[in-house]
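Attaching the record inline, Q. Sequence:
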Amino acid sequence: MKYFFKPDAWVIVITILSVLAIAVMWHSINKEKWYFIVLVSLVTFLIGYFVAKIPLYVKVGVDEITVKQIVGKMSFNRQTVKITSVDKKELKNTVRTFGNGGIGGYVGWFASPGLGRFYMLAVNRKELAKVITETGKIYVINYPGELLQQG
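Structure, as predicted:
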């Protein structure tokens, strides 16, 4: 079954401000200075990369959990991962190490004292679950709360 999640207000505000900032940067760029063009192009590319990784929905099947992104997907075998809810205390003092913390969602590598290093794919911070793989990697995704309560 597919589950769609609504972005939180912070994500919507950051997304709108970022689009406006990119538009202003491209409009006001000094086109005679090559390094300005390179800088603005790099910023635009990085933002575009993270926008492509924004999760659209989570599909929960009998054997697999799939996080569908704008470009691509991330899948987890339900038999080989452990899924638990994320306690808000675990996300306290989270630092973005290489990722996007608001433009369309939260995507990339983060670190927190409660979880350690983890990869996050979420559009809001409400219905979160941590997926722990056999190798110990931690992923934080949006996941239906009712499925977590069922066990």
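Helices lie at 9-28, 34-52, 145-150. DSSP finds three helices and ten strands in the chain.

More tomorrow.
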